[in-house]
Amino acid sequence: MTDTSPQTPPTAAHYERPFTGRPGRWEKERARAERTGHVRNDSCSDDCEPVLVHERTRWGWLAWTVPGDGSLPEIPHQIGVLSPAVHRLQRQAVHWLTRRPAQRIALGRIPASLRLSVAAVGLVSLFAGLYATWHGIPVGVALPAMALAPLLVEHLPDLLDARAGEHVRVVEGDGTCRYLQRLAALHNDILQAAAGSDRYELRRSAEIGQHLLWDTADLLQTRDTRAASADLIARERLMLQLAHQAAQILNADAEDGAADANHAAASDRPLGPHSPAARPTTNPTARRTPTPLQKGTSLMTQSGTSRVVPGSVYFLFVHEPYYPAVAQEINTTVVAAASLLHPRVRQPDGARIHDLLVRGRRPGEIVPLSTLTHELDGGTCWPEVGDWEAVTEDLLQLVRERDCDALNLCLPDIARALVCAGPRSEVRAVDPKSGNHRAYGPSDRVEVLVEVSRQLAWAAAGSPLWPGDGLLVPLNSADES
Q1: 3-state DSSP assignment of residue 273
Q2: Single pTM value for the model
C-alpha cells in the first residue's frame, strides 16, 4: 500500500518510430501510400488529408503519416485507445476503424465523389432489378430495392463507424499524441512482461495500465495537456511505477531461476512482507498415507473412515499475531472448512459454524469470519450458532501444534482491516504526512481475497490442506465440503 517511486525508469523504445522491429512493414506501407494516397510534405495545408498508416496494438492503434522526404515520422498523427471493458467481438472495432480508406470515384465537375463499392452495388442492383421485372416481379417492388441497395452501402459504414467509436477514444494533435505515445510505450513494456508470465501481479498491472490509457485519452479529448498537466503527471508516474515493478519481477525471476521464482515472488506480494509459512507436517504415523490426492480434492475422515471429497471450502480468520520464527509475524490463518469438525475444536459450535460456512459456497471459495458475521445479521445471531472466539482459538492451537494444515499469512494493516470488515463495509485510511484520506471498499476486499486464493493455490500445489484426523460427521451429512 506504500507509494514508492522507481529509482530507474524502464527503457521503453516502443512506438518511438512506426513498426519498431519490423522495418520491412513500414517500407511496404509507405510504398502503398505513395501509390494510392497523399503523403505529407511542406506544401500541405491544414485542409490536407494525408493517407494514414495504422499500426494496430493490443491496446488500440497508432496512425502515422508518411513524410514526403522519405524519413520516418516521430509523432503519430492519431492515437486510438480501446476501452478496457470490451469483449472479444467488440475488439473488432479496432480493425474496422483502422481499415484502409474506401476508393472513391469523382463525379466530373460535381464537387462530390462516390464510393467504388457503391457504384459496383448500384450496377449489380440495376441488372438484378431488370432481371426481376423480366420474370414478373412488380416494378413497384424491384425499383425500391434497386435504389435502397446503393444507399445502404453508402451509409452503412458511417453507422458502423459511430457504433465502433463508442468503444474507442481517439486523440489527435502533436502535444496530446506525444504524451499518449510515451504512456503507451510504458504500457507496452507491461504487456510484454505479462504475456510471457502467469504472475498475477503482471496481469493486474496490465489491466491497470489499460485503464490508465483509456482514462488519459478520455481526458485529452476534452482538455489540453497544459490544463490537465497535474492529472497527466500523476497518471504517467503511476504507469512508470507499474512498468518499473514489471521489470523488477522479470529480473528477479531471471536471476533466481525456475526453482526459486515462487519463493522470491512471495516476498514481494502485496499481502505482506513475509512468504506464507510452509504447511505444517505431522507425525507420519499419525497422518494417513493413502494414494496421492488429485488436485482440487480434500481428504477427511468421519467416524474413523477416510474418504475423498471434491473442492474444499476454506475458512479465513484473523487473530493476534504470533512469531514462529525471528522477524516472521503470522496474523491471519486459512484452514480447510472441515477442520471445524476436529474433535479438539469446541463442539458442537465448530460443527454449526462448519454447516453455516459450507452451505451454498463454491468449491475452493475462501470465506472470512467477517462474512459469516455479516450473514448472521451483523453478528446478532452468533449466540444461536456458537462461540466463534473459542472455536478460532482452538483452530489456532491445532495449527500451531501441527494437527492440521494451514496457510499462514502476515497481512498488512489495510488488507487485515478489509478481511475483518464485512463484504459491504468500507475502510478509511489517513496518510499522516499529507493528511489525505483514502477509502477502501468491497472491490479492494475482493482483491485481497483473490490474492489469498492465489497464495493458497501455490502453497497447496499438489494436494489440498489436510483438515486433521478423526473428524466428526457434519450436521448435514449431504455436504461435500
Answers
A1: coil
A2: 0.45
pLDDT recorded at residue 9: 41
For residues 463 and 140, what is the distance between their CA atoms, to the nearest angstrom? 75
Smallest CA-to-CA distance from 14 within 184, 175, 174, 177 is with 184
CA–CA dist 50, 242 (Å, integer): 36
Helix (H) or strand (E) holding 164: helix 139-165
- Using DSSP, state whether 386 is helix, strand or coil: coil
Radius of gyration of the chain (CA): 31
The ranges of the chain with pLDDT < 70 are 1-16, 23, 36-49, 86-91, 93-97, 99-118, 153, 155-157, 160-161, 255-311, 326-327, 460-463, 477-481
Check: CB of residue 83 under 8 Å from CB of residue 171: no
pLDDT in tens, 123-147: 787 778 777 788 788 877 777 777 7
**Cα(409)–Cα(102) distance, integer angstroms:** 60
User: Which residues are bridge partners to 172 per DSSP?
Assistant: 78
Q: Which residues contact 479 (CB under 8 A, 6 or more apart)?
A: 355, 358, 359
What is the β-pairing status of strands 328-336 and 407-409? Answer: antiparallel
Torsion of the alpha carbons at 437, 442, 447 and 452, rounded to the nearest 10: 110
Q: Which of 274, 395, 422, 289 is nearest to 338 (CA)?
A: 395
Residue from 193, 198, 231 nearest 215 by CA: 231
What is the distance of C-alpha 92 from the center of its chain? 20
Neighbour count for residue 313 (Cβ, 10 Å):
23
What is the chain's length? 481
Beta carbons within 8 Å of 155's beta carbon, 6+ residues apart: none
Q: What's the rounded Cα separation, in Å, for the pair 48 and 39?
A: 10
- Structure-block grid coordinates of residue 429: 485510511
Residues 6+ apart with CB under 8 A from 331: 318, 319, 320, 321, 409, 410, 411, 416
Task: Determine the Cα–Cα distance for residues 424 and 421; give it in Å rounded to an integer.
Answer: 8
Task: Give the model's pLDDT for residue 106.
Answer: 59
Cell digits of residue 179: 504524451
